[in-house]
Amino acid sequence: MNIKEISKHFIKNVADKNKNSINKSLGEPRVIFYWNADSIGKELGLSSIDVDKVVEFLSEHGMLYWRHNYGTLRTLEITDKGCKWDYYESIFEEKLIVKTVMGDNFENISGTVINRSLVSNSFNKVRDQIDEESAKLLEYITLEVEKSGNKDAVDLMEGFHKEIQQPEPKKSILKNFWNGLVIAIPSLISNADKVMDIIEKIGKIIPF
């Protein structure tokens, strides 16, 4: 099985379903729909094991991830990056350099793909403890950092996500990571107020 080629068809299938479910009169925001992974896999002639491999590959690249199980259903949520999969189409062609460091850490040849499980856990924590909008902002910033190809920025972004997941994340450390990101990628400054607000909200929820 050519995992990259199958994954390309899989994410296109999910993205098309998502687009077809959006009410065009409301514009085109990313609306979250939960998709039955095995049902989509069946449309492509994939076994349950093949679906697992495809979802793992796409999750590593931040295009979708597993959500809740509803009975026997295994469901997926597509990300903003997944909805724009064709913009990132090169991931289906690049050679991957894979290394393991205390878990699954995957990089492309330019070393600019952030550990997806790390991002997903951070996203879920911010969404659950603050709000959906804040989580989506961090997801957007993470994608911008990856697109920049700046390895230093990627390291800072990973550090930011890791600190968020600490039992008692420190505002001072989060601010230092953010300041470093703005220096590495000046265009991120437009999000500064919102990011600082997220850091302050984390401080109110969790004692430092």
What does this 3D model show about the protein?
There is one protein chain. This protein has 208 residues and is α+β, with helices and mostly antiparallel strands. It has 2 domains: 1-93, Orthogonal Bundle (Arc Repressor Mutant, subunit A), CATH 1.10.10.10; 113-208, no CATH class. Helices cover 55% and strands 12% of the residues. The protein has a 3-stranded antiparallel sheet with strand order 1-3-2. The longest helix is centred in the first third of the chain and has 18 residues, at 3-20.
Order of SSEs, N→C? HEHHEEHEEHHHHH
What is the number of domains?
2
User: In terms of structural class, how would the helical and strand content be classed?
Assistant: alpha+beta
Kindly state the mean pLDDT as a whole number? 78
Task: Show unreliable segments.
Answer: 24-29, 95-111
What is the terminal separation in angstroms?
Answer: 49 Å
Profile the largest sheet. 3 strands, antiparallel
Attribute tags:
208 residues, alpha+beta, Arc Repressor Mutant, subunit A, 2 domains, 3-stranded antiparallel beta sheet, 5 strands, 12% strand
In short:
The chain has 208 residues and is an alpha+beta fold. It is built from nine helices and five strands, in the order αβααββαββααααα.
Which helices and strands, and how do they pair?
Layout: H1 3-20, E1 34-36, H2 37-43, H3 48-60, E2 64-70, E3 73-78, H4 80-83, E4 96-100, E5 104-108, H5 116-129, H6 132-148, H7 151-164, H8 171-184, H9 192-205
Antiparallel strand pairs: 1-3, 2-3, 4-5
